[in-house]
Each structure stands twice: as structure tokens, then as C-alpha cells.
Amino acid sequence: MIEARNLPAHVGIIMDGNGRWAQGRGDDRKAGHREGSAAVRRIVRAARRLGLRALTLYAFSEQNWERPEDEVDALMGLLREFLLTERGEILDNGIRLNAVGNLGRLPGIVRAVLDPLRKDSESNGDMTLTLALSYGGREEIAAAAREMAKAVAKGEMRPEDVTADAMHKLMPSLAVGDPDLVIRTGGERRISNFLLYGLAYAELYFADVLWPDFQPADLHAAIESFQARERRFGKVGKPAASNGDAQVIRIAI
Ligand code: FPP
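That is the input. Now the predicted structure with farnesyl diphosphate docked in place:
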């Protein structure tokens, strides 16, 4: 059981460890990505079942283009396959599929399935699944700064209108709100250019499990850890609240 109140609205996941998972089995890195795709499917289902409002998955970073060509091709193929095979389930389950990043760099085989699914699911409102593709947090911040600089140069904006809130509005990854919880699998404790601007007050959770082994129970453990934390957003904490007679609603998982 998981408490239904105080669920993180927006969860981001840095899905790390596919390569090590495969190498540990004497297999090709691509086999790890294939198994990683299966983990994506089960975690999307688990997130929807829990009632999360937004899930953002770091599926391909702007820096991942530097990987060997056969690995990049395999990842693009898996992405296309995921979008094709999950299309029906996404549409039937009220999921809006979105993508953020430098999407213009994606190959035609991905855009051909990604673009129609984004369009066809845009009115779905139960959960937004955002794939960060060819994504970089610094690049996203630079793009927002560039947009504002152009507006200032044209006289459409004053320099003093360049505020933290105005920047926030120009971040596509934060259209669903700041991430409340960011999970990284695979044992490393770093952020690797993910959702940098939105991370300001996110709770971070590092799991040692490699992404292909990540199970719904691991997602639940991360959410329970989130629920046990006090978020202060730079202010002072509240005195411990008594639960009184308030009914705690739990979701069966
Ligand atoms: C990091 O593992 C993972 C990636 C760079 C790609 C993530 C892709 C998937 C989970 C599969 C395809 C995605 C979707 C949405 C269907 P790594 O290769 O860096 O692992 P390592 O740190 O062990 O080398």
C-alpha cells in the first residue's frame, strides 16, 4: 500500500545502467537497452496505476549522440518500437505522450511515429509521459536565454523582465511543473544534465539497481522515501502535524 496523499506529481527518472547490465552477462550493450525498454514499459504502467500526473524519462541525452553509431541506431530503433507497440495503450489509458529536447536531430524513423502520437494524445489528461530525447538541461536553459535575448533585442521585452519565472515559462520540460522527485538508477550519484532548471527543489533518490532490473517495487520505495521527507522550499519547517482522525487513503500496489 502507498499513501495516496502527498504523491509526487511529477517524477523524473535518469535510467542508467543498461550497458553494465548487459556487460555483466557477457552480452552486447544493445541487449541492455532492449531490456531497458521492457523496464520502461512496466514503469510507465506502474506510474499510471499509482496516479502520477507526470513522468519524465531521460531516454537519450544530447551527449549520447557521441556513442558508437550502432548503439545510437539500436536506441533509435527501440524508441520507434516502443512508440509503435505502446501507442494503443497510451491512447486508451489517458496518457499524453510528449517529447522534449532537440527533436530536430532525431531520425525520420522516430519522428514518423513520435509526431503523430504526440498529436493524437494531446487531449489526454490523466498522466503526461515526457520522453527527454536529444535533451540537455544546459541546452534547454541556453535556448530560453536565447529566446529572451532576441525579444529584448527586438524591443518586445525589457531586460528587467528577464526573471526566474519568465525563464521557467520557456522551459518545455517544465510545462508539467517542476519535478518533485528525481530518481537515478545504476548507482551513480549525479544529475548528468537532466532537467537542470527544474531541479531547484526536487527531492533526489539514488537507487543502486541497474535500470533493466528496476521494478515497480523500486518505484514504490522511491515514492515512500519522498513521502517521508519534509520539503521546505527554502523556508522554515512546519511543526510536526498530528494525523488526528484524518483518514489516510492508501493505494493498493
Ligand atoms: C543509460 O544506460 C541509458 C541510456 C543512455 C538510454 C536509455 C534508453 C532506454 C532505457 C531504452 C529505450 C528507451 C525508450 C523510451 C523505449 P547506459 O548505457 O549509460 O548504461 P551504463 O552506465 O551501464 O553504461
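The radius of gyration is 19 Å.
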